[in-house]
Amino acid sequence: MGRRRGRDLDGWLILDKPLGPTSTDMVNRFRWALDARKAGHGGTLDPLASGVLPIAFGKATATIPYIMDATKRYRFTLSFGESRTTDDLEGEILARSEHRPSDEAIQAVLPRLSGDVMQVPPVYSALRVGGQRAYDLARAGRPPDLPARPARIDSITLVSRPDRDTAVFEVQSGKGVYMRALARDIALACGTVGHVSVLRRLKCGPFEISQAYVPALDAEGQLKLDKMAESGDKAGVLPVPLWPVATALDDIPALAVTREEGKRLVCGKRLETLSLLDRPVETLNDQPLWRVCLEGHVLGLCRVDHGQVKAVRMLENHLFFGD
Fold first, then answer.
1. 118, 132, 242, 306 - which has most CB atoms within 10 Å?
2. What does UniProt list as catalytic (predicted)?
3. pTM given for the model
4. Which of 76, 18, 46, 87 is nearest to 200 (CA)?
C-alpha cells in the first residue's frame, strides 16, 4: 500500500507574512509542516512585502478566486528621488531627481490616480508575456513592454511625511492593482521619481492583519516546527485554529433560503427569486454573486439571472443526506 499523500485539512490560515520568503515559499512550508494534502494562497505578496497572506487548505482552495477578487488594503512608504528597475528596493537605480513634492502637491495628484484607472504593471511582475513571466524576461535582459490595464483604486490616503524624502500612504483597491506601480505613478505625477521602500498588506477580503498568525522563523527563515507543535507531533498540531472555508465569502451579500430551497440549489435546480425575497428582481440582478445561507450555515454561491436563482458553486451538501 502506497503512502497517503498528506492529511485532509480544510480551512484558512491567516498569516502575517514576514519579509524575505515569497508567498509560494510560505504555502509550501506550511503545507509540509502540517502534512496537508492540498494548499494554496489568496493573493501574492512580493518577498519585500509583509502582511496578510491567506493560506487555503483543502476545500478552502475552491474559494481562492473570491479572495483574489476581493478588496484589499495596503500601507506603503514611497521614497522620492530614485526610480528603480523593480519599483522597489530590490532593483537597480534607473534615474534620480532632486525634486521633493510638498504635501499639497501630493494631495493634488491623488484624485486623478483614484477610481477606475489604467495602470502599467511593473516590468518585474508575474504577468505572462508570450508564455513567460515578465520578471523572467526582465532578469534575462529582455524587459517586456507591458500595456496599461484597467485597475480600480477605491482610495489613496496620505498618512504621514516622516521626512521630505518619504511619504506614507494607505490604499484600498480591487483585484490586480500593483502598489509598486502606484507609488511610481504618484512620484511621476508629482514631477519626480520614486519607489516603494516599505509595503505591508493590512487586509485581504474579510481577513484583517489583527487576525493574522505571526510565524516563528529561524535564522535561515525556516519555520520553527517545535513552536508550531507543542505536543512534539510536527504534523499533528496547528499553530492556530483554521478559519472556516466559508469565511472567504463573508464580503459577499447573504441570501437566506429555506431548507427546501437550499436542497433545490444543491441539486442543481433553479429558484424563482420572488419566492425568496420580498424585494424587486432588479435589485437581485444588480449583485453579481450571493452567498446562500441556511440557518446561518453557508451552502455556497448563487447568481440571479433573468428572474431566477442559479447555483454557481455549492461548498457543501451533506446537510441534505439522510433526509
1. 242
2. 46 (nucleophile)
3. 0.85
4. 76
